[in-house]
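Hi everyone,

Forwarding the result from last night's run.
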Amino acid sequence: QVRPVESGGGLVQTGGSLRLSCLASGPTFSSYAMGWFRRAPGKEREFVAYIRSDGRKNYQDSVKGRFTISRDNAKNTMYLQMNDLTPEDTGVYYCSAGSVLWGQGTQVTVSS
């Protein structure tokens, strides 16, 4: 069983970039579909992006063209490269393995 741990959050200005990482310990990482979700202040958690074990990807419409999800199975790590950030991207970002195993989250704050 994998245990996701996120890192890479922080404070950035509008238009800036961040790269989130999710280290998921466990021998079966490569078999999991991995995803990023976020919870904005006062809102429900929402889907951001996922990457399947075969590399197929999907994104929420609002992040298409700005965010890129990737994975390195040799390192048991998934990434989310976030460019051209806006204040609407502010929130706690969660890594998920198979939508059943969750990390504790990492805070992303985009100032205007």
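Residues 23 and 89 are 22 Å apart (CA to CA).

Cheers,
N.
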